[in-house]
Amino acid sequence: MKEQNSAQERITDVEERLTRVENLLVSINEKLDQRSGIGEVNTEKAEAFKEWVTDYVSMRLQQLVPETCDHPDAAVLHDGPYLDNTTVPCTEEVEHRVKRIPIPFVREMVVQRVAENARDAGIERVDIDFFEKAATF
C-alpha cells in the first residue's frame, strides 16, 4: 500500500509541475504576442546604418591594407608587366626573376627596394640590369 501511495504522490507532484510549466509557457506566449508590434524596423534608419557600416569597414580596410585598395588606371596597366603589388613597370625577364625568389617575405622586400630605387631614379621600366643593381642590399 505504501508503494501505491508514494507512486500516487509522485504522479501528483509531476502533474503539479507540468501545470506550472504549462502556465509559464502560456504567459511567455502572451508576452511574445504583445511584443509582436515592437519588431517593426524603420527601413530608412536601417539603410542609413548599413551605409555607415559599409563606409566604416571600407575605411578600416584602406587603413589596414592600403596597397590593395588603390588600383592604377586600367589604361596604364596595359603596357606590360609590373613588379608585384606596385605600379612600377618591368620587363618580363624581371618578372620571371622575381617569381624565382622562393621566400615570400624576401621577395616582397626585394620588390619594394627595387620599386623604391626605380622611383628615386626616375626609371620608366625596370630592366634586368637595373633590377640586379637595385636588388642588392
Percent of residues in β-strands: under 5%
H/I helix tally = 7
Distance between the termini: 98 Å
Instruction: Give me the strand/helix succession.
Output: HHHHHHH
- Please indicate the count of domains: 3
Total beta-strand segments = 0
Low-confidence stretches: none
Mean pLDDT: 81
The description of the largest β-sheet is: none
Task: Explain this structure.
- The protein is mostly helical and 137 residues long.
- It folds into three domains: 1-40; 41-70; 73-134, no CATH class.
- 71% of the residues lie in helices and 0% in strands.
- It has seven helices and no strands.
- The protein has helices spanning 2-35, 43-64, 66-69, 74-77, 92-99, 104-121, 128-134.
- The radius of gyration is 35 Å and the shape is elongated.
- The mean pLDDT is 81.
Sum this structure up briefly.
By secondary structure, this protein is mainly alpha-helical. The chain has helices at residues 2-35, 43-64, 66-69, 74-77, 92-99, 104-121, 128-134.
Secondary-structure topology with pairs:
Blueprint: H1 2-35, H2 43-64, H3 66-69, H4 74-77, H5 92-99, H6 104-121, H7 128-134
Which keywords apply here?
137 residues, mainly alpha, 7 helices, elongated
